[in-house]
Design the sequence.
């Protein structure tokens, strides 16, 4: 299949070889876990346990009555040490359940449940109860996403195996090592959503994943699986963005303010498909995931299986990971859209794809210069915006002009800031513009 | 890729042309170049320090302006005029607008326009290459307009003609262009649009009436087109930010250049055409804004 793509985009140094060459490392139980009650888009959960309670692995710790929400489970057996505001990688301080692990109990074994031919609403119910959210990073509750509203139909289901952020290789690892499980998850999604066509999109720098899928698909007994279109998309950041995938695969541009759903498309990350498969076929709630530990500072980078709630510091200690270089920046997520952390007592969440330890060489100090109007930001913007003009108006607070430049369309991918020769923090200025417009509306 | 890289890249791209100018005009070339750069750098330093700002000479932009200005001045120009030009370029062409990135007009071209208006004789006194004989030389465009004599393109390509320091050798400038596009320092669109428009316009007019008009290849190599299209019209600060806008800019420059060359009072139109299009840039930016993502035509 010929390589497809979207307008704009950048080609940063991917550094994927740092982590992908290492073997997948097994989980080590941490001494304590910090489970935030909010690990998703939507209403936060209310705690169902109290201080001093003994909780089992997989037990529900927090639930919400809200539809757009996702429960959180304990990832270990242990005692609740406290329920308090703890540090969250993206939200500052939020209510979290801190559990001291009971090391005498070995990790749970999740055997095949033997489930088969389940009705879609049963599957969705189990997805909700298992706390599954979008594993690509956005953490949108999956059961909500897979419930198609009346009147809308899914023409195209796209399974997102692009993984366009530099350094991250957790999805790649899943696609190559857990192909069968990912495939079963995809099948479950297809049976719920009933799309006319299904695509699996893989960037061209992950040929091994492509071949793994190709083999799995062609040997399937089900016609629907054999009909899945396996597509190579051009390796370019941000190919993994939903709008970019829709454009690359269907050629359709999702209108501003609308969702892919509105043009008949649905996208699910391969990690989400895997989590769904584990939940339905092994009865395992979302308490564990593969995380890429990378950057240029570590002696043992790679992909690690991690229990949700493990702090970064514990991760490094449990696995004996040492720094061969002093990290200047610790980023949760990818280097383009991830969050820099001020300390290491930060829990790994359901949607944490990677933790990067970046030295001075990569995380350079950028002194903001004058805008040369070189328009590199305009050339690379995947949504055809003009960051140079937006920030010019943000600087003088001309909010009408900012609005007319469609700043609300911006997905904050950072491609513009990456390309700017004057090292202007474009995304930060754009955020300022967005916030000012929000304030004006109220 | 940062600002310094871009500026240094432009300087590197100018090296072949500088070497050519040193070969053709020797001591005069060296002096004009040095004084021009000095004028620019000193003015920028003083202007900024008097404003209480950092001088930021390390971004090389004043040096680039100095070199470009030197390249578009005649070799025999009195050096005090060169210094004045450099000072004007920075003070009036850049700093009063707010510094790097804020100017509307190309500073080097603006300075040349000023010098042309203030000292027209000095700015139109040419020198023969290599021999530096001042009396009997005109530029190829001058010969074409006033004497209807067309210098051979081969000679013009190499540069053995009268003209400003950087105007003469198309070959040297072309090397610079390839370098700049390869290193992604400039966008090829403006230069290519300018060239194509220039050639088409002259081709059509020449086909209609060879006695009255200029042959297309001649037009391409004559005068300041190469230096203008490669180094002036591609200045990011003063040109459009949209891809289509850049095509429009190049086409506009081509049309105006030919119009001035054929029907204007001056033999050369590159300088004014670029300045004119610089003024039109904000309008071009607005008009060529791309379609909003996800919105179809007619919505």
Sequence:
């Amino acid at each position: 299949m010929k390589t497809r793509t979207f307008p704009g985009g950048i080609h940063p140094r991917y550094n994927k070889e740092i982590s992908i060459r290492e073997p997948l490392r097994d989980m080590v139980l941490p001494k304590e876990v910090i489970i935030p009650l909010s690990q998703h888009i939507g209403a936060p959960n209310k705690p169902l346990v109290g201080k001093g309670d003994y909780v089992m692995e997989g037990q529900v710790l927090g639930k919400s009555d809200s539809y757009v929400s996702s429960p959180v489970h304990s990832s270990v057996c242990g005692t609740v040490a406290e329920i308090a505001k703890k540090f969250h990688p993206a939200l500052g301080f939020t209510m979290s359940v801190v559990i001291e692990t009971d090391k005498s109990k070995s990790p749970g074994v999740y055997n095949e449940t033997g489930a088969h031919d389940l009705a879609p609403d049963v599957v969705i119910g189990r997805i909700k109860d298992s706390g599954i959210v979008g594993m690509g990073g956005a953490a949108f509750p999956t059961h909500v996403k897979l419930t198609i509203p009346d009147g809308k139909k899914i023409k195209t289901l796209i399974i997102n195996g692009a993984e366009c952020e530099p350094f991250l290789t957790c999805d790649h690892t899943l696609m190559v090592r857990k192909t069968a499980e990912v495939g079963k998850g995809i099948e479950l999604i297809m049976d719920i959503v009933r799309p006319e066509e299904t695509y699996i999109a893989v960037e061209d720098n992950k040929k091994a994943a492509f071949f793994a899928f190709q083999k799995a698909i062609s040997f399937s007994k089900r016609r629907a699986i054999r009909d899945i279109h396996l597509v190579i998309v051009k390796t370019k950041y941000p190919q993994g963005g939903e709008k970019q995938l829709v454009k690359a695969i269907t050629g359709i541009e999702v209108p501003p303010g609308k969702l892919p759903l509105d043009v008949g498309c649905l996208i699910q990350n391969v990690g989400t498909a895997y989590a769904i498969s584990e939940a339905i076929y092994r009865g395992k709630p979302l308490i564990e995931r593969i995380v890429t530990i990378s950057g240029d500072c570590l002696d043992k980078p790679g992909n690690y299986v991690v229990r949700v709630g493990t702090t970064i510091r514990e991760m490094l200690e449990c696995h004996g990971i040492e720094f061969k270089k002093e990290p200047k920046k610790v980023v949760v997520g990818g280097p383009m859209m991830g969050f820099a952390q001020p300390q290491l007592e930060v829990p790994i969440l359901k949607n944490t794809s990677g933790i990067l330890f970046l030295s001075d060489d990569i995380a350079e100090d950028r002194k903001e210069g004058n805008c040369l109007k070189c328009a590199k930001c305009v050339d690379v913007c995947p949504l055809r915006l003009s960051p140079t003009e937006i920030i010019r108006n943000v600087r003088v607070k001309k909010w009408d002009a900012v609005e007319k430049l469609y700043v609300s369309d911006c997905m904050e991918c950072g491609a513009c800031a990456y390309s700017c020769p004057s090292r202007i923090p474009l995304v930060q200025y754009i955020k300022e513009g967005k916030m000012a417009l929000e304030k004006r509306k109220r | 890729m940062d600002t310094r890289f871009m500026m240094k890249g432009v300087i590197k791209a100018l090296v072949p042309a500088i070497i050519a100018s040193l070969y053709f005009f020797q001591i005069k070339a060296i002096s004009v170049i040095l004084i021009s750069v000095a004028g620019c750098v000193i003015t920028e330093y003083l202007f900024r320090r008097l404003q209480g700002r950092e001088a930021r000479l390390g971004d090389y932009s004043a040096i680039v302006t100095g070199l470009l200005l030197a390249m578009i001045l005649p070799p025999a120009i009195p050096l005090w005029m060169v210094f004045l030009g450099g000072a004007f370029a920075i003070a009036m062409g850049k700093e009063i607008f707010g510094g790097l990135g804020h100017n509307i007009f190309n500073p080097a071209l603006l300075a040349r326009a000023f010098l042309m208006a203030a000292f027209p004789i000095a700015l139109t006194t040419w020198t023969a290459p290599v021999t530096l004989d001042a009396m009997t030389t005109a530029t190829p465009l001058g010969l074409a307009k006033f004497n209807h004599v067309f210098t051979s393109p081969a000679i013009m390509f190499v540069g053995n003609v009268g003209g400003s320091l950087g105007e003469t050798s198309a070959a040297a400038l072309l090397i610079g262009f390839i370098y700049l596009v390869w290193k992604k320092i400039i966008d090829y669109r403006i230069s290519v649009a300018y060239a194509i428009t220039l050639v088409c316009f002259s081709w059509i007019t020449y086909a209609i009436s060879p006695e009255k008009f200029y042959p297309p290849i001649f037009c391409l190599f004559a005068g300041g087109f190469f230096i203008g299209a490669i180094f002036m019209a591609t200045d990011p600060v003063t040109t459009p930010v949209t891809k289509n806008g850049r095509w429009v800019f190049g086409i506009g420059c081509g049309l105006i250049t030919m119009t001035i060359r054929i029907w204007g009072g001056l033999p050369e139109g590159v300088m004014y055409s670029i300045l004119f299009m610089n003024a039109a840039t904000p309008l071009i930016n607005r008009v060529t804004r791309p379609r909003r993502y996800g919105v179809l035509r007619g919505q």
User: Anything to note?
Assistant: The radius of gyration of chain B is 19 Å. Chain B is about 65% helix and 0% strand. The mean pLDDT of chain B is 89.
